[in-house]
Design a protein that fits this description.
The protein is mostly beta strands. The chain has three helices and 22 strands. The longest helix has 10 residues.
Length: 335
């Protein structure tokens, strides 16, 4: 198998596996890698603590078929714990859970990669422009299910010099009603493209998604200059047939100073002409090693209790909980 073709397979899953994935097996064109993270996360709101710790574990397998074709399979799960003072297996408490984030297989080559299963839609790479913080951020550029991680999805991704493209189609799920088969009408598609403008540090992105009676589009841009990074996203669409008008934007910036990375984001969104997100967040991450970091993140919630709050299906009034700031402290180990 040509190294360039295999490299496409590995790089295509790099965002999910992480740069520290360990190679478990590699012989006769078959390879298996394991990666993931262990992340301790303490969240504080109104002086009260919550454990949002998690562990992610993933496996990436590739099989060379010939010089121009390979097979690929990928799985990633996330273990979380929020036992609220309970003991292992206490049925009266929220015990640890395992969620499957990805589970797909397919074929790839220099022309790109086709997969089916639970995979990521096409708008995740667009929201990544501003989703750069260790904990907070990414609260205004909402994605439809077909544009996010979802099952029953056929996906394509390809890289052609400075152009990256993604496309996904989610099938409607079969249901049996009164002895006959029907579907849940949750089919849809998403498309995106990202173009890097030569060696200028400028990247431009655009995407669109449509599902049932909802749709959205996103426009994004980023600029990297040495240790500085700036990005922005604008999104607009219909989250539902009625009372679902949605508009949002996100701004992000980052500065790297030695082993410390400072990031900040501003998120603003309106649903049905009322504010549904309005926050400003800052954080600092210190990298003891490339795969081990500690961070502190603070989110300033600019919504006040009693404000009108935009919601799909009907606006509400912001509660005290809706208006709270949040402090998060974490330690993350990538493997």
């Amino acid at each position: 198998m040509k190294k360039t073709v295999l490299a496409l397979s590995v790089s295509a899953a790099a965002m999910a596996t992480g740069v520290n994935a360990a190679e478990l097996y590699n012989q006769d064109g078959t390879s298996l890698e394991m990666g993931g993270r262990a992340e301790a996360r303490l969240s504080m709101k109104d002086g009260d603590a919550q454990d949002n710790s998690r562990i992610r574990l993933n496996f990436l397998g590739t099989q060379a078929i010939n010089d121009n074709l390979y097979g690929v399979g990928f799985w990633e799960g996330e273990f979380t714990t929020n036992e609220q003072g309970g003991v292992d297996g206490d049925v009266n408490k929220d015990s640890s859970n395992l969620d499957t984030r990805y589970a797909y297989a397919g074929l790839g080559g220099a022309w790109g990669e086709f997969t089916y299963g639970k995979n990521e839609g096409a708008l995740g790479v667009i929201t990544d422009f501003t989703d750069i913080m260790a904990y907070h951020g990414n609260s205004a550029a909402d994605k439809l299910a077909v544009a996010d991680r979802s099952d029953n999805m056929m996906s394509y991704k390809g890289q052609f010099e400075n152009l990256n493209v993604k496309a996904s189609y989610r099938f409607a799920d079969r249901e049996e009603v009164n002895g006959e088969y029907t579907d849940n009408k949750q089919d849809g598609y998403s498309l995106s493209a990202i173009y890097a403008v030569a060696d200028t540090g400028l990247e431009l992105g655009a995407g669109y998604a449509d599902q049932d009676e909802a749709n959205e589009y996103m426009l994004a841009a980023s600029y990297t200059m040495g240790d500085l990074y700036f990005a922005g996203i604008f999104t607009d669409g219909e989250k539902a047939k009625t009372e679902g008008d949605y508009t949002g934007y996100e701004l992000a910036g980052a500065y790297t100073l030695g082993q410390t990375v400072f990031t900040t984001t501003y998120n603003n969104a309106e649903t049905n002409n009322e504010t549904s997100a309005n926050n400003f967040a800052v954080d600092a991450s210190y990298y003891f090693k490339p795969n081990f970091r500690g961070y502190v993140s603070y989110n300033f919630n600019l919504i006040d209790s009693g404000d009108k709050l935009g919601k799909v299906g009907g606006n509400t009034t912001a509660s005290k909980a809706d208006a709270e700031d949040e402090l998060a402290v974490g330690v993350r180990y990538d493997f």
